[in-house]
């Protein structure tokens, strides 16, 4: 039987985990933050540190050639974003660049993972691979809290 709680690694869970990590590595999220200055978020990155599966699997569809399942997962990742800070120049009517900072935060996200197994019903669970892996939701917004510029000291 397929036992998630046993903590054993197997090819099926490994292939699902790899697909989840790949999807999160490719995600582009909206960075939210608070600051006393005007700022713009620039490049952002997501680095998955852990994927944990709930011990229950829901069967969605079964046919002669395939079976589709759903499993819930908690994804822990480090979100990182570069912020540029500006101040409004009322004389030139333009934003003047002041400084920048890179902020990071650890986030836990829960998602459902839908996957399909094709023609592998006679094989042992340890040798199965998940195909057509889809996530029902991925991160859209990450709140970095209160941020402020990181000023470099002037060199003499």
From TrEMBL:
This is Uncharacterized protein. It comes from Klebsiella pneumoniae.
């Amino acid at each position: 039987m397929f036992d998630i709680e046993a903590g054993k690694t197997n090819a099926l869970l490994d292939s699902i985990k790899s697909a989840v990590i790949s999807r999160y590595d490719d995600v582009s999220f909206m960075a939210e933050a608070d600051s006393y200055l005007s700022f713009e978020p620039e490049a952002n990155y997501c680095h998955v540190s852990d994927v944990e599966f709930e011990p229950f699997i829901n069967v969605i569809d079964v046919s002669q050639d395939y079976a589709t399942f759903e499993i819930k997962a908690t994804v822990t990742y480090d979100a990182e974003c570069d912020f540029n800070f500006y101040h409004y120049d009322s004389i030139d009517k333009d934003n003047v660049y002041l400084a920048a900072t890179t902020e990071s935060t650890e986030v836990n996200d829960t998602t459902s993972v839908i996957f399909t197994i094709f023609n592998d019903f006679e094989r042992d669970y340890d040798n199965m691979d998940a195909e057509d892996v889809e996530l029902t939701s991925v991160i859209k917004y990450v709140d970095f809290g209160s941020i402020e510029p990181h000023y470099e000291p002037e060199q003499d």
